[in-house]
Amino acid sequence: GMPFVTFGRTELLSKHPSIDIDHEEIGAAAAARLLDAGHKAPLLVAPSSQFTYSLQFIKGWTAEFNRRNQTVPDERMFFTATTPDSGKKIAVDALAKYPDVTSAFVASDEAALGFVSGLADLGRKVGEDFSILTYSGSRLHDFYNPSLSTYYFPNFLIGQRLSDLLYRSMQGEAASGLIEIVRASFVERRSEFNLR
Fold it and tell me: Is the pTM of this model over 0.85?
């Protein structure tokens, strides 16, 4: 009987107060942006597949390829911890296997930090010969050089919404009215280039 709220959708069968970001929409938008710029078979670096939001990124990414009647390059989808070290390892390993790749959506700004470092070690230049997009709840993307194009929804606003939903739940409001899915905004920076 204790009121609670979750950040993210869960597999619980009972409705409960929650807020989540539309990660499926982000995955589809990232795929569309890279494909529209002429990047063939871009990489997707997603958080561990044990997390629901990671699978939502994959679902949206795959749906966009399917919408275009293109084969989804499953072998170019990587699951990793959201750390700089893991991002760097993925960059080095993926480009060793696929040296022709020109773009990636790294669905974590922490992993993107390492991914960018890995690219630099390989002599690749973000925004010049490699396009990168990321997802973030912080403003970390502003501190990269160059700064990264990012799908962004502030963690601060998530915290405010969680507090509001919990309060409303404690006041007796029905859980069915306390479920929110919000859309991230796209912050365009200098981390992309067009092959067309």
Answer: yes
How confident is residue 145, by pLDDT bands cut at 50, 70 and 90?
confident
Model confidence at 48, in pLDDT bands (50, 70, 90)? Answer: very high
Which amino acid is present at 101?
V
Nearest alpha carbon to residue 94 among 69, 109, 114, 71: 114
146 cis-preceded (ω within 30 degrees of 0): yes
Do the beta carbons of residue 195 and residue 127 sit within 8 Å?
Answer: no
CA dihedral 133, 77, 71, 102 (to 10 degrees): 40
